[in-house]
């Protein structure tokens, strides 16, 4: 851009200088020519007088000079005249106009008699006054020159605008802003180069979309069941690993095992199309129920067995969900066979924090067998008498407690470092807990689902942001540390929160660059159109955007570029034991390859071992967080 601007200025400057020089030379030549012509004309007049005097001297007496010479001298506007013979004046003429600006001519008329002439005349160009007509012609010439100079400058500037447009598009391409470069086609010249750039950008955009589709294809064939489109056995294993750590499950929840009795025998009696239609209809109806359950997992374990995991749900709600699932299954149109009333069986196992996933699978299988022993389609819950007491609180008690916590600011902020490959802290991720009246801390996995249910999520997340801005970022001893804050769907869709956030970011715009806002991948994918303007507003305010839990679902990664995210965080199900799982490594390689030549950084969440961290660094992950570096620390 700067080089083309310099070139434009030089060319236009050269154009103006050239035209100005031509005009100046033209006027200077005219002036010199005019001066020379007047001098030559005056010299001719003097020569005529000399000829007349020589002729007169040879034929007439000197006394006759006074009869005709004064009138001629007056006509020539002579101010002084002398005719000398042998040094003695024989005729003199003088007026009162003699002075500066006059020219004196001296010459010898007759050498033998030493006859000399001396005559003083005014400057020749002073004898001529320009008339209005001549002034009009001169002014018209000057104006015409100025007009053509101005016209030439504008014409050249217009011609060079095309080069500026090409330079602007080239700069956008070098800055990896391909979408903006494609949108600003402009009027670049040469037009062939401009069309070539547009063609290449279109090809690149299509290639990026193809890459995103290829990534989705890889993940689909790795983690999805090809017949039903839901998760496969490997997908279920990864997601259960993500919900647990070395100490067991990290949040309470429920697991359903749905088995279709004698589905293989039914397939032998009916056509494959009928069985496929039955499966797809049942799965679609179940998915509609699970849409209301955040972070739910639906996968196929075997040909006729399906697993459903719903974290952060109470025992009472788990029982209601089991009833809904059985009702959906019984509403399917089954063929009238001998065992049509004993076709669907659901085993339910409720788990709490600290239990192992192996224990969960064992309990859910026992519950499934118990449901099958009942002799009819139904469900059975494995009851081990271990229900989280805090999670069993009623909604009214929870709402009162949460409102009390908001009013009295009982929210406690924790931070966990995100470490780069040089073991330097890239930023701190903020999480929160609530301190009750007994000074106990209630974890986020317990109170956040109830806050969502009570519609108080925007208030809690607003209080977290206020804590970060007023307490952490305002610390003058630390001016470099960045903090990331998670935003939920309810918060981003709240108009009141967005208005408050916009006003706050404007007020603290000197701190905005140190803020990172994280949004879950499933929220962005399913509500992209609703959130795009709000995410753009946050980015334009100067804050960074991060999408976390990437890889939790099998979706296209094209949204990363469309929403202009700065960071992405891999879901812990991808990170867990990645050094032993080639399919997860393939996904990470494909994801990073699709983000090549962009400024998007790839981070990892839930790193618990040195082998995982080493493998992630080899794959190209920039930074990570997890228990291997530090557990969340309370901010005082």
TrEMBL record:
GO terms for molecular function: cyclic-guanylate-specific phosphodiesterase activity. Residues 251-384 form the GGDEF domain. It comes from the Bacteria. Coiled coil: none annotated. Keywords: Membrane, Transmembrane, Transmembrane helix. Residues 395-636 form the EAL domain. InterPro entries: Cyclic-di-GMP_PDE-like (IPR050706), EAL_dom (IPR001633), EAL_sf (IPR035919), GGDEF_dom (IPR000160), Nucleotide_cyclase (IPR029787), Rev_trsase/Diguanyl_cyclase (IPR043128). This is Diguanylate cyclase/phosphodiesterase.
């Amino acid at each position: 851009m700067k080089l083309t601007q310099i070139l434009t200025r030089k060319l236009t400057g050269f154009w103006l200088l050239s035209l100005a020089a031509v005009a100046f030379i033209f006027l200077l030549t005219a002036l010199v020519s005019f001066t020379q012509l007047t001098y030559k004309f005056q010299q001719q007049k003097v020569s005529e007088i000399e000829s007349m005097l020589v002729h007169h001297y040879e034929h007439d007496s000197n006394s006759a000079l006074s009869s005709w010479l004064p009138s001629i001298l007056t006509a020539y506007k002579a101010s002084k005249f002398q005719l000398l013979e042998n040094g003695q004046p024989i005729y003199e003429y003088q007026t009162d106009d003699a002075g500066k600006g006059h020219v004196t001519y001296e010459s010898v008329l007759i050498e033998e008699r030493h006859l000399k002439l001396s005559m003083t005349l005014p400057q020749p160009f002073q004898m001529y006054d320009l008339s209005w007509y001549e002034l009009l012609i001169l002014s018209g010439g000057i104006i015409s020159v100025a007009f053509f100079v101005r016209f030439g400058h504008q014409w050249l500037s217009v011609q060079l605008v095309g080069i500026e447009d090409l330079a602007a598009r080239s700069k956008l391409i070098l800055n990896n802003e391909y979408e903006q470069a494609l949108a600003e086609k402009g009027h670049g010249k040469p037009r062939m180069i401009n069309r070539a750039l547009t063609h290449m950008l279109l090809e690149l955009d299509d290639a990026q979309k193809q890459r995103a589709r290829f990534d989705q294809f890889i993940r689909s064939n790795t983690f999805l069941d090809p017949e039903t489109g839901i998760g496969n056995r490997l997908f279920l294993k990864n997601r259960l690993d993500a919900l647990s750590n070395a100490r067991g499950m990290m949040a309470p929840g429920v697991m359903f095992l749905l088995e279709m009795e004698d589905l293989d025998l039914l397939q032998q009696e009916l056509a494959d199309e009928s069985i496929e239609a039955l499966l797809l209809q049942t799965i679609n109806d179940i998915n509609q129920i699970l849409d209301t359950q955040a972070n739910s997992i639906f996968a196929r374990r075997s040909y006729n067995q399906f697993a459903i995991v719903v974290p952060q749900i109470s025992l009472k709600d788990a029982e209601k969900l089991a009833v809904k699932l059985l009702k959906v299954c019984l509403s399917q149109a089954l063929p009238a066979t001998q065992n049509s009333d004993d076709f669907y069986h659901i085993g339910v196992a409720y788990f709490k924090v600290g239990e192992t996933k192996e224990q969960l699978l064992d309990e859910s299988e026992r519950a499934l067998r118990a449901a099958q022993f009942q002799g009819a389609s139904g469900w059975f819950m494995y009851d081990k008498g271990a229900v989280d007491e805090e999670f069993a609180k009623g909604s009214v008690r929870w709402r009162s407690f949460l409102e009390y916590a908001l009013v009295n600011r009982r929210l406690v902020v924790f931070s966990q470092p995100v470490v780069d490959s040089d073991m330097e802290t890239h930023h701190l991720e903020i999480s929160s807990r609530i301190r009750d009246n007994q000074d106990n801390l209630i974890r986020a996995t317990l109170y956040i689902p109830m806050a969502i249910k009570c519609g108080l999520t925007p208030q809690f997340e607003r209080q977290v942001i206020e804590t970060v801005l007023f307490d952490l970022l305002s610390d003058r001893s630390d001016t470099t540390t960045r903090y990331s804050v998670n935003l939920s769907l309810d918060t981003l869709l709240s108009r009141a929160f967005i208005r408050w956030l916009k006003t706050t970011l404007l007020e603290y715009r000197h701190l905005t660059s140190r803020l990172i806002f994280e949004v879950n991948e499933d929220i962005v994918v399913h509500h992209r159109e609703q959130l795009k303007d709000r995410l753009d507003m946050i980015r334009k305010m100067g804050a960074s955007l991060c999408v976390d839990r990437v890889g939790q679902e099998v979706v296209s990664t094209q949204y990363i570029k469309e929403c202009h995210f700065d960071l992405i965080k891999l879901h812990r199900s991808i990170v867990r034991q990645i050094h032993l799982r080639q399919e997860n490594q393939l996904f990470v390689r494909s994801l990073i390859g699709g983000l090549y030549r962009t400024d998007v950084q790839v981070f990892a969440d839930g790193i618990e071992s040195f082998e995982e961290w080493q493998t992630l660094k080899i794959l190209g992950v920039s930074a990570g967080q997890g228990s291997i570096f530090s557990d969340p620390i309370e901010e005082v």
